[in-house]
Amino acid sequence: MNSYLPEYFKEFELIWESRDTYTIHLPKENPGKAGQFYMLSSPGIGEAPISVASGHLREMLFTIRSVGTVTSKLPDARVIGVRGPYGTSWPWERYGKILAVAGGIGIPPINSLFDEMVGTGRGKDLEIIYGARSPSDLIYHKQRKEWAKMANVIITVDKGDPNWKGNVGFVTQFISKSETDRDGAVFIIGPPLMMKNSVAESLEAGFRPENIYLSLERRMECGIGVCGHCNVGEFYACEDGPIFQYSAVKHLPELFL
Ligand SMILES: Cc1cc2nc3c(=O)[nH]c(=O)nc-3n(C[C@H](O)[C@H](O)[C@H](O)COP(=O)(O)OP(=O)(O)OC[C@H]3O[C@@H](n4cnc5c(N)ncnc54)[C@H](O)[C@@H]3O)c2cc1C
Ligand code: FES
After folding, report:
1. Which of 70, 186, 190, 210 counts the most CB atoms within 10 A of its CB?
2. Whose CA is closest to 111, among 100, 95, 124?
């Protein structure tokens, strides 16, 4: 795959996960690693950075929330372009145990992490805390059953409904109850406030700052460190990130903006 030029697909499958979120299956092996992203496009509608949702060398999946120009038009596109993979990945191989904390549309790269860890027989070393605004915003019904067979999984919603029998509360409330060894790593991805509070809770729960990793979302144009659109302090989110070690970026005033 050429990193600079999109490869175009006319054949692909698109499945709606919820009222505003869909998954695109491309008939191609994913050369990327969990946490990395690709630039997705279609002629005439522009490009958007999207994390890969499947593991290394698995069929390429992307799960996308329709929020703006590109992401709202991709479901009607006849051709989808993909270039990448770009950026850094979750460094799970360095750690014995991993706690992954995901909010909202932060969950796709955690599904990718799950795929990768299970693929190497390390599914039991993963714990997942996944939160969404409401039960109807929770996605990955099938995948969640697969996670639960291998990993310790906590699912929660900010606000329940009359049919919801599960946890209610922010993901941050569940970090102190994590079964993950405190010398393990914490991978956090989600909206800025959720990430800020999850870092504080992880530190409070006894995880080390150097073992905490964040996936930072910034507006991107080139994805390859050329245009300067995605800077976070002295770093570029597209090249130095999107996965950053918390202790390397905690000094940045714009970290959680
Ligand atoms: C590394 C990375 C991985 C990502 N992975 C995923 C993923 O797996 N799934 C997914 O759904 N999304 C993902 N995103 C987010 C996605 O790339 C953005 O939501 C992107 O902006 C969507 O493009 P769009 O053209 O549809 O939306 P846009 O038209 O760009 O608008 C998106 C939102 O941003 C706001 N906005 C528009 N312009 C600006 C501006 N100049 N400054 C600030 N806000 C603005 C809009 O009001 C709107 O709410 C990822 C982002 C990054 C950086
Ligand atoms: S997106 Fe162009 S430098 Fe990062």
Report:
1. 186
2. 100
